[in-house]
Amino acid sequence: MGAEESTIPERLNSSQIQALASKTKYSKDEIEKYYHKFITEYPSGKISKETFYEAYHELHPEAKSHQDAAMFKKFDINNSGDIDFREFMVALKANSATLKLLINKDDIYQEHWTKTKVRNQDAAKF
């Protein structure tokens, strides 16, 4: 992803932040933090269907292909075939674990690894 050149602004303007804040109830700082992570991970400013499907199946390996398609369609509000930052934030407000994985990959893997390690240590005590 680092080879792609960014096509979206480095920062949101105040009216964009205000609109997102009113729609999502996230603070200005939270929106800016998510935006920075989003454009770092997705310099094109969009999450493709394929990338979304991969993340969805990492979290829900038992899911059928129609389930990931239905979830993507729900988040792709303007039916563009991609999820842009505004759509991402609106869906994130709904607390979607899939979208959190897309933007916080390292944090989620670390949390999973820590929980697994603790469970394994607890199991070893018996």
UniProtKB/TrEMBL annotation:
The keyword Calcium applies. Residues 63-98 form the EF-hand domain. GO terms for molecular function: calcium ion binding. SUPFAM superfamilies: EF-hand. Keywords: Calcium, Metal-binding, Repeat. This is EF-hand domain-containing protein. It comes from Didymodactylos carnosus.
